[in-house]
What we know:
- The structure is a single chain.
- By secondary structure, the protein is mainly α.
- 64% of the residues lie in helices and 8% in strands.
- The protein is built from six helices and three strands.
- It has helices spanning 3-20, 34-45, 51-58, 62-74, 96-118, 122-139, and strands at residues 49-50, 78-82, 90-94.
- A three-stranded antiparallel β-sheet has the order 1-3-2.
- α2 packs across α5 (96-118).
- It starts with a helix and ends with a helix.
Amino acid sequence: MKESHISEMRAFNRWYTAMIGVLNRKWMDGDLTLPETRVLQAISMKDGITAGEIVPLLHIDKSYLSKIILRFERAKYLTKRVSAADARSYQLHLTALGRREFEKHNQMTNEFVRQMLEKLPAAECEEMIQCMRRITEILGKVE
Protein backbone atom coordinates (compact mmCIF):
# COMPACT_ATOMS: atom_id res chain seq x y z
CA MET A 1 0.00 0.00 0.00
CA LYS A 2 1.36 3.37 -1.00
CA GLU A 3 1.22 6.07 1.66
CA SER A 4 0.33 8.49 -1.13
CA HIS A 5 -2.93 6.55 -1.72
CA ILE A 6 -3.93 7.11 1.89
CA SER A 7 -3.10 10.80 1.65
CA GLU A 8 -4.95 11.21 -1.65
CA MET A 9 -8.09 9.45 -0.38
CA ARG A 10 -8.13 11.51 2.81
CA ALA A 11 -7.59 14.71 0.87
CA PHE A 12 -10.46 13.85 -1.46
CA ASN A 13 -12.74 13.04 1.51
CA ARG A 14 -11.92 16.38 3.17
CA TRP A 15 -12.47 18.29 -0.05
CA TYR A 16 -15.76 16.57 -0.91
CA THR A 17 -17.29 16.80 2.57
CA ALA A 18 -16.44 20.51 2.68
CA MET A 19 -17.81 21.04 -0.82
CA ILE A 20 -21.21 19.56 -0.05
CA GLY A 21 -21.46 21.07 3.43
CA VAL A 22 -21.55 17.86 5.45
CA LEU A 23 -19.71 19.51 8.32
CA ASN A 24 -22.31 22.24 8.77
CA ARG A 25 -24.38 21.94 11.92
CA LYS A 26 -27.59 21.76 9.89
CA TRP A 27 -27.79 20.04 6.53
CA MET A 28 -28.65 22.29 3.57
CA ASP A 29 -29.47 25.13 6.00
CA GLY A 30 -32.52 23.15 7.08
CA ASP A 31 -33.68 22.10 10.52
CA LEU A 32 -31.94 18.72 10.51
CA THR A 33 -28.39 17.44 10.57
CA LEU A 34 -27.23 15.11 7.80
CA PRO A 35 -27.49 12.01 10.05
CA GLU A 36 -31.03 13.02 11.02
CA THR A 37 -31.92 13.40 7.35
CA ARG A 38 -30.48 9.96 6.61
CA VAL A 39 -32.52 8.39 9.40
CA LEU A 40 -35.70 10.02 8.01
CA GLN A 41 -34.77 8.67 4.59
CA ALA A 42 -34.28 5.13 5.93
CA ILE A 43 -37.69 5.18 7.59
CA SER A 44 -39.24 6.69 4.47
CA MET A 45 -37.78 3.95 2.28
CA LYS A 46 -38.93 1.12 4.55
CA ASP A 47 -41.99 1.87 6.63
CA GLY A 48 -41.76 -0.19 9.79
CA ILE A 49 -37.96 -0.41 9.81
CA THR A 50 -36.42 -1.04 13.22
CA ALA A 51 -33.53 0.79 14.84
CA GLY A 52 -31.62 -2.49 14.66
CA GLU A 53 -31.96 -2.40 10.88
CA ILE A 54 -30.92 1.25 10.63
CA VAL A 55 -27.66 0.82 12.58
CA PRO A 56 -25.88 -1.34 9.96
CA LEU A 57 -27.60 0.41 7.07
CA LEU A 58 -26.21 3.82 8.03
CA HIS A 59 -23.21 2.65 10.07
CA ILE A 60 -24.53 4.81 12.88
CA ASP A 61 -23.88 4.48 16.60
CA LYS A 62 -26.83 2.93 18.48
CA SER A 63 -26.91 5.58 21.19
CA TYR A 64 -26.76 8.40 18.63
CA LEU A 65 -29.60 6.78 16.69
CA SER A 66 -31.63 6.50 19.91
CA LYS A 67 -31.21 10.26 20.48
CA ILE A 68 -32.34 10.98 16.92
CA ILE A 69 -35.39 8.72 17.28
CA LEU A 70 -36.31 10.40 20.57
CA ARG A 71 -35.96 13.85 18.95
CA PHE A 72 -38.18 12.71 16.07
CA GLU A 73 -40.82 11.37 18.46
CA ARG A 74 -40.89 14.69 20.30
CA ALA A 75 -41.14 16.57 16.99
CA LYS A 76 -44.00 14.25 15.94
CA TYR A 77 -42.03 13.04 12.87
CA LEU A 78 -42.46 9.38 13.71
CA THR A 79 -44.34 6.87 15.76
CA LYS A 80 -43.04 3.65 17.28
CA ARG A 81 -44.97 0.39 17.42
CA VAL A 82 -43.88 -2.82 19.10
CA SER A 83 -42.63 -5.24 16.46
CA ALA A 84 -44.85 -8.27 15.92
CA ALA A 85 -41.73 -10.31 15.11
CA ASP A 86 -39.78 -9.26 18.23
CA ALA A 87 -41.52 -7.55 21.16
CA ARG A 88 -38.13 -6.14 22.29
CA SER A 89 -37.91 -3.87 19.25
CA TYR A 90 -40.03 -1.14 17.74
CA GLN A 91 -41.05 -0.53 14.17
CA LEU A 92 -40.66 3.08 13.09
CA HIS A 93 -43.28 4.85 10.99
CA LEU A 94 -43.19 8.39 9.65
CA THR A 95 -46.14 10.59 10.46
CA ALA A 96 -47.56 12.94 7.84
CA LEU A 97 -45.42 15.69 9.39
CA GLY A 98 -42.34 13.45 9.20
CA ARG A 99 -43.01 12.67 5.53
CA ARG A 100 -43.34 16.38 4.76
CA GLU A 101 -40.10 17.13 6.59
CA PHE A 102 -38.29 14.36 4.71
CA GLU A 103 -39.68 15.53 1.36
CA LYS A 104 -38.62 19.11 2.09
CA HIS A 105 -35.04 18.02 2.79
CA ASN A 106 -35.04 15.58 -0.11
CA GLN A 107 -36.12 18.32 -2.53
CA MET A 108 -33.50 20.74 -1.17
CA THR A 109 -30.77 18.14 -1.63
CA ASN A 110 -31.95 17.27 -5.14
CA GLU A 111 -31.89 20.94 -6.07
CA PHE A 112 -28.38 21.36 -4.62
CA VAL A 113 -27.10 18.42 -6.68
CA ARG A 114 -28.99 19.60 -9.80
CA GLN A 115 -27.36 23.04 -9.57
CA MET A 116 -23.93 21.47 -9.13
CA LEU A 117 -24.33 19.08 -12.07
CA GLU A 118 -25.77 21.74 -14.38
CA LYS A 119 -22.40 23.53 -14.22
CA LEU A 120 -20.72 20.55 -15.91
CA PRO A 121 -20.75 19.63 -19.58
CA ALA A 122 -22.93 16.56 -20.19
CA ALA A 123 -19.93 14.38 -21.08
CA GLU A 124 -18.10 15.27 -17.85
CA CYS A 125 -21.25 14.69 -15.83
CA GLU A 126 -21.64 11.23 -17.37
CA GLU A 127 -17.96 10.45 -16.79
CA MET A 128 -18.21 11.50 -13.15
CA ILE A 129 -21.30 9.34 -12.56
CA GLN A 130 -19.49 6.35 -14.12
CA CYS A 131 -16.52 7.00 -11.82
CA MET A 132 -18.84 7.17 -8.81
CA ARG A 133 -20.40 3.84 -9.78
CA ARG A 134 -16.92 2.33 -10.07
CA ILE A 135 -15.84 3.71 -6.67
CA THR A 136 -18.99 2.27 -5.10
CA GLU A 137 -18.29 -1.09 -6.74
CA ILE A 138 -14.68 -1.18 -5.55
CA LEU A 139 -15.28 0.06 -2.00
CA GLY A 140 -18.33 -2.19 -1.69
CA LYS A 141 -15.89 -5.11 -1.56
CA VAL A 142 -14.31 -3.90 1.69
CA GLU A 143 -17.49 -3.37 3.70
